[in-house]
Design a protein that fits this description.
Rossmann fold; 578 residues; alpha/beta; 6-stranded parallel β-sheet
Length: 578
């Protein structure tokens, strides 16, 4: 049956009819607004793929080259589009190949619904071919999971999965469907989305008294500092956040997943927090009198040594997840709720102020950092190319309008620090898990999520080899993803730690790479290699102008370190500029 002649089954006037569990799943996905699926077929999920044949015009299926590539693509799609990413995989090794991506999505609060095939229900527990207990394996790295053994369960479980994945603090959900449940018939009378689960309260009731207490603390502050994270993005509260910042006049710093909520050049944006963040917000965290955390979780990479973190400050913490409040840093004034609801209430109560002396301290720190680090990073006088100047040249050519997808390592920190962003959802990276190999498949997903936006994957020579097979996905789909490989011939971040903390004992961090341009050419993708500075800008311009995907390899300094840096186990006040 062709897609054009599929019967309309969702009308209230249509009597229930029999459909397979696989068809019910696909109809449910359409009802949830799904348009793109990333996946890899196999025996245990074959009935779903057979049904998908009749839905090819309604659902775009992207055939990845590895299931881990599929789930990272789903993450990139979700992070760029704001929708739920959908991933298919078969049983056994197909399902276990999703685990890294599930863990990454769980810690970074990325909404996903992953569908895995499973052996027939009567074979469960028998060690059948490609059987694995995916429910117990993935329980620690999913927001919720469930094994379907009967076709009749599919519509209700799918609706519940989407509701859980996207509501409250988002996260990944996995549904494991036995083969018989995919094949067997059920009576289909339409799809009913889930809007309520009795035991699940994703949206807290905002308590005005808590907001008033937070406002009172802020209004008495002389040196307040705002720290914001991805919770602002996930709550769709960018406008509310900017209104709060601009009325209160408080300087604000960001975690890497919160980048772009305030434009890079906003006068109250004082930079990035954390181990490789800006000097000012790190040092001055330990000088502020009120610390206002909004949609961030006080990760160890932000706080450094906890017993020396902001001990002088009273803490206001706005978060939708109650488990994050008081988990690492005790809050003087906790505000539990969706920041899209709590921020306008707070804005109404805060006084409009400007803190000239306090903001001058950030300017002083910025000048100190520029003299010690930034000038030579972005505008080097050394003969070797730097990662920073590549990002700076890219900024000038894209004007902050591209989506930057960074992998994990030194290049990630450089991209976070120096990438120009005019809005949120313009920087996508693996934050909490730090997954090498994330960027290439995530960039593919981001391009499907935002097809009219330039997507640039910025990857190190180590990370790109972990998922380089996804060049095949680019080749087959024909989408345009720009890939910059910053090649320093080392596993750069590990090498930096070995230099600074292990006496330059470089233990297994020098990595040989293929000819990336030749590899790209093998996948029918254009490419170029840059070694000399005069060639850099023309090559970047050519990459951006090329109508399809493009691989640009840039040979950068081998032993360039990323500063500032808060050494592990140290206070944020001990941040190093050299």
């Amino acid at each position: 049956m062709s897609p054009q002649t599929l019967p309309v089954l969702d009308s209230a006037t249509t009597a229930p009819r029999q459909v397979s569990g696989a068809e019910a799943l696909l109809r449910g996905l359409l009802a949830e607004g799904v348009d793109t699926i990333f996946g890899y077929p196999g025996g245990a999920i074959l009935p779903i793929y057979d049904a998908l044949y009749d839905f090819k015009e309604q659902l775009t299926h992207v055939l990845v080259r590895h299931e881990q590539g599929g789930i990272h693509a789903g993450q990139g799609y979700a992070r760029a589009s704001g929708k739920v990413g959908v991933v298919f995989a078969t049983s056994g090794p197909g399902a276990t190949n999703l685990v890294t991506g599930l863990a990454d999505a769980q810690i970074d609060s990325t909404p996903l619904v992953c569908i895995t095939g499973q052996v027939y229900a009567h074979l469960l527990g028998s060690d059948a071919f490609q059987e694995i207990d995916v429910i117990n394996i993935t329980a620690p790295v999913t927001k919720w999971n469930y094994q379907v053994t009967q076709a009749s369960e599919i519509p209700g479980i799918l609706a519940k999965a989407f509701y859980i994945a996207r509501s409250g603090r988002p996260g990944p959900v996995l549904i494991d469907i036995t083969k018989n449940a995919q094949i067997d018939a059920l009576a289909w009378a339409g799809y009913e989305p889930c809007t309520h689960i009795r035991s699940y309260r994703p949206t807290p009731v905002v308590r005005p008294a808590a907001v008033a207490r937070a406002a009172a603390l802020i209004n008495q502050a002389q040196r307040p500092l705002v720290l914001w994270g991805q919770g602002v993005v996930l709550g769709g509260a960018e406008r509310e956040f900017q209104e709060f910042i601009e009325k209160s006049g408080i300087p604000a710093a960001w975690t890497i997943l919160g980048a772009g909520v305030l434009p890079s050049d906003h006068p109250l944006n004082v930079g990035m927090l954390g181990m490789h963040g800006n000097y000012g917000p790190n040092v001055l965290t330990n000088e502020c009198d009120v610390l206002i955390a909004i949609g961030m979780r006080f990760d160890d990479r932000v706080t450094g040594r906890l017993d020396k973190y902001a001990t002088q400050a009273q803490v206001v913490h706005l978060d939708i997840d109650p488990t994050e409040i008081d988990k690492n840093v005790l809050a003087t004034a906790p505000v539990w709720g969706d920041c899209k609801q709590t921020l306008p209430l707070l804005t109404q109560l805060v006084a409009g102020r400007r803190y000239p002396a306090w903001r001058a301290r950030f300017a002083e720190c910025q000048a100190q950092e520029t003299a010690a680090v930034i000038s030579e990073t972005l505008f080097p006088t050394s003969p070797e190319l730097t990662m920073g100047e590549v990002i700076q040249q890219l900024n000038e050519l894209t004007q902050g309008e591209a989506i930057l997808v960074s992998d994990v390592g030194q290049h990630q920190m450089v991209t976070c620090r120096y990438g120009r962003l005019n809005q949120s959802r313009r920087h996508i990276t693996s934050g909490g898990l730090g997954t090498m190999g994330f960027a290439l498949p995530a960039a593919i997903g981001a391009k499907f999520g935002q097809p009219d936006t330039t997507v640039v994957a910025i990857i190190g020579d180590g990370g790109v080899q972990m998922t380089i097979q996804e060049l095949g996905t680019l080749m087959q789909t024909g989408i345009a993803v720009k890939i910059i490989v910053l090649n320093n011939q080392f596993l750069g971040m590990v090498r930096q730690w070995q230099e600074l903390f292990s006496g330059r004992r470089y233990s297994f961090v020098d990595i040989e790479s293929p000819d990336y341009v030749a590899v790209a050419r093998g996948y029918r993708i254009a490419g170029q290699r840059v070694v000399e500075r005069p060639d850099l800008r023309p090559a970047l311009a050519a990459m951006l102008a090329h109508p399809g995907s493009f691989m640009l390899e840039v040979m950068v300094a081998q032993e360039q370190n990323i500063f500032p840096m808060v050494p592990q186990g140290c206070s944020v006040s001990e941040i190093r500029l050299r």
